[in-house]
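Reopening: LisH domain-containing protein still failing for me.
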Amino acid sequence: MSEALVDRRAAPALITLCSGPEFSVRISTIPAFGTIMETVTQKELLERVKMQLASFLEDPQYHDQHSLHMEIIRTFGRVGPNAEPRFRDEFVLPHLHKLALANNSQTVESKRIDIATQLFEAYSALSCCFISEEVMVNHFLPGLRCLRADMEQLSPEHEVILSSMIKECEIKVENRGMADAQGSMSIASSLVGEDAKTKFLSKMGQLTTSGAMLANVFQRKK
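Support: Ran it again with your exact input. Result attached.
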């Protein structure tokens, strides 16, 4: 299906279905919205889809909709690795972090296990993506730590894997910081070197000029 057809027909139809009375119908639109986010590049269309997904996540009427949250997490895990990086960094990962944090306070154990398991699958898929240091520190790592807190109580075998993932991410952040610091030192060293070189050449120029003037003086005296 062309992007133009998705824009004119598919997306408006999905948005209309989201306003229907049946929650099950609204939930069934989420994978389709995810597919649009994964395959379409038209900025205005992506923004409309993003707004609809945001309404599912932020509207109070959906806060206790367990099956809706499950479908959103499942969809994020499926489309996140292939979605536009900005959408992933600014929307998917921050909302996964919020869902992981909220799940720490879930009192119904069966629901807590469901969400934690789905989050584990999503984070495992997204861990293969390039994630900026800012997003890693502010959202990805905190989300993983929230998930690990759940798995410590619910599934120790998952907790071991999450601890390994967290350690690996922390090392990546540390290595990037060291690389940035080394890069800054290298640039500073280069600037200092260039400055010293310029000063040296300037001095040499002055000495050469002085030497030439002295030679002229001696020649005149002769």
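The chain has one domain: 3-181. If you still see a failure, please send the error message rather than a screenshot.
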